[in-house]
Amino acid sequence: MLNENSSQNYVVLARRTRPQSFSHLVGQDIVASAIEKMLSNQKIPHAFLFTGTRGTGKTSSARILAKSLCCEKGPTISPCQSCVHCQQITSCIHDDVLEIDGASHTGIDNIRELREATRFFPNSARYKIFIIDEVHMLSTGAFNALLKTLEEPPPQVIFILATTELHKVPITVRSRCMIFTFKKIEQQIMEKHLKNILTLEKIGFEDDAITLIAREAKGSIRDALSLLEQVIAICNHSFISSDLTKNALCVQGEEIAENIFSAICTKNLGDALELLRNADLASLDMAILMDNISQYFRNAMLIKTLNNKERAIVLTSLLPQEYSLIQEKIQNISVAAISEIFKLTANSIKDIARSNAGLAWSEIIITECISRAEWLSTSELMSLLSHSPKTIVEQKTHLTTKHVQENFVDLNIFKKFVALAEQKSKTLATRLNHVKVDLFNKNIIQFSDTLENKSHLSFNENDLDLFWQCIYELQLQNATFKGLYTPQQPTKQNPSKNLNTKNKNEQTSHEAVTKLRNTSNIMQSFQKYNSEKISIKSTELLNNTSNKAISLSEINHQEKNQGFLQKERALYEKDHIQQLKNYATEMQIIPVD
Q1: Which residues have C-beta within 8 Å of that of residue 98, sequence separation ≥ 6?
Q2: Could you read off the pLDDT of 457-481 as tens digits, one per residue?
Q3: d(Cα 295, Cα 455) in Å, to the nearest integer?
Q4: Preceding amide of 75 cis, omega within 30
């Protein structure tokens, strides 16, 4: 027994709990059962190839197999652990069991030495066994030198190769071996194993703490044991709580990632950018942070689509409180938006990792994520198209004609306005393309009170004059101008234009404004996914949009979507008619006039 009081003799938890027989192998029942049957039937291949992610038991299985073959009672599925062969293999000092590190013995000369060693009979054991770990690190010349020996080794020689990257092993080597794939350890199995170890160590724990450790290990039992030992040290070998476990794991940027996820779901760009800046000041890796954010949206996608708490928790490995948090945040965001945001964040990780401007990259990505948070899926758009304009009018008969005429964005006028601005100034047109508009018609012009508009509508003196020139040329000067950031008319008039500069004197009263803002939008019948307001154009309202803030670039995007759906419907109808014709031909139906 090791002396626990001596730090020099201390053995880490991952080594102390290493399995010594196939029955103790954690989470690899299929592999263990297959090898045990080979041993029982005395049908042992001359070359094994173990593949799988790190920490899943490949090297441990290779040593167990070596003990099973060399044990005095063997070949057996249960090594005795007491004979000289078992003890020496456990201590890695057996003369006939050679462990070779493929990462440090990559050259052809190393393989030639190994090939020479295969010519000699075992010193004391039944077999001479060569365990080559990380075999994919061998050079091409080394693999070629090994091929002949690997195909027809001496009868007393057995090769056991192990790799984490099977695709890097030449097909000529793979075809000469019997391949066993070690899968990632399931989280439930890993949690049970960790709890058994803590019970033997007489250390108390919270179930949530063990769940956090198993989830962070990502299927590697060795990583889980290393993390567990780290948590035990921080908890001073006493009770393991979930709070201390979170601090001990030091998951980089997870809390900030959660807050950014919430900011994206609530479309709060200011908070999201501030959180990114705080993460940069804390020297967090932006690529890892973006990876954590993408994982949140991956979990959100599963929660939204499954709509089953128990199943979603199993698939996402979330704690119940984490599940509730994500479910609450995604109430007003569509499946299509979640999918697009996940793709955007996941695809940006490599770019951010390679870039020297990680913060700038992240800011651009998060801004795009928030702009996509209102996207709709094709099924949602098709559902909206099923509503007729007549139904909309019938449901909103209580609205006054004046309100209907004022409470919309006239697309024709707005597009003419931007086109006219583009003739005068490219810079002005670019800003107007991205500005958010609440109302834009002959009666009311109102730009949204958003931070984006504050930037887009901050015109220089020249662009401001050109802006108002366009207003006068389209005869919109008599409209009521509202909005915190809506440009104000300069006191100096443009001498080149003989336009009417009379401003509208009558202002809408405070009571009328309040009433106007509180009146329901005529498009409210399109509500879906938890009262999310969705606007769509119909035949009668083709050139109008609702009073929801929108920019011209978004309007163009919606028109493209509508055009696509119309073409898609036409193709469906055409295909349906063709199918009817084919069916009539098959049934030999003769048309009757």
Answers
A1: 114, 117, 128, 129, 130, 131
A2: 888 888 888 888 888 888 888 888 8
A3: 32
A4: yes
For residue 380, the model assigns a pLDDT of 56
| pLDDT at residue 218 in the model | 86
* HSE, side-chain direction, 13 A CA sphere, residue 286: 26
C-alpha distances in angstroms, 483 versus 358, 447, 474?
Answer: 35, 5, 20
Q: CA dist 189 to 19, 181, 227, 410, 479, Å?
A: 15, 18, 16, 61, 69
User: Using CA atoms, how far apart are residues 409 and 424, in angstroms rounded to an integer?
Assistant: 23
Burial pattern 131-153, b for ≥16 Cβ within 10 A else e, equals: bbbbbbbbeeebbebbeebbeeb
For residue 391, give the amino acid letter: T
- Where do we find the tokens 């009666």? 443
Residue written as token pair 């009817």:
580
Within 8 A by CB and 6+ apart from 434, the residues are: 452, 456, 551, 552, 553
What residue spans of 186-285 are helical by DSSP H?
Answer: 187-201, 207-217, 221-234, 242-249, 254-265, 269-281
Which residues touch 263 (CB under 8 Å, ≥6 apart)? 269, 271, 272, 275, 370
CB 294 within 8 A of CB 254: no
β-pairing, 544-545 with 409-410?
A: antiparallel
Q: Which amino acid is at 241?
A: S
Helices H, strands E: what count in the chain? 27, 10
At 173 the pLDDT is: 92
- Say which range, 99-103, 240-244, 439-443, 583-587, has the weakest mean pLDDT: 583-587
What domains are there in the chain, each with its CATH number? 7-182 (3.40.50.300), 187-249 (1.10.8.60), 254-371 (1.20.272.10), 390-554 (no CATH)
> Could you tell me which of 39, 44, 87 has the C-alpha nearest to residue 63?
87
Smallest CA-to-CA distance from 138 within 92, 116, 113, 170 is with 170
The set of residues, in sequence order, having a beta carbon less than 8 Å from that of 542 and lying 6+ positions away, is none
Average pLDDT for 62-83: 89
The 3-class SS string of 296-345 reads HHHHHHHHHHHCCHHHHHHHHCCCHHHHHHHHHHCCCCCHHHHHHHHHHH
Distance, in Å, from the CA atom of 421 to the CA atom of 105, rounded to the nearest integer, reads 70
Give this prediction's pTM.
0.57
Q: Give the Cα separation of 520 and 392 in Å (integer).
A: 12
Distance of alpha carbon 145 from alpha carbon 111, whole angstroms: 7
Cα separation of 54 and 183, whole Å?
Answer: 10
> pLDDT tens-digit profile of 320-357?
888 888 988 888 888 888 988 999 999 999 989 988 88
pLDDT at 384 over 60: no
For residues 52 and 180, give the distance between their C-alpha atoms in angstroms, rounded to a whole number. 9
Continuous H helices in 396-478: 401-406, 411-424, 426-434, 451-456, 461-473
Task: For residue 347, give every residue at least 6 positions away whose Cβ sits within 8 Å of its Cβ, in sequence order, or none.
Answer: none
HSE-up (13 A, CA, CB side) for residue 416: 16
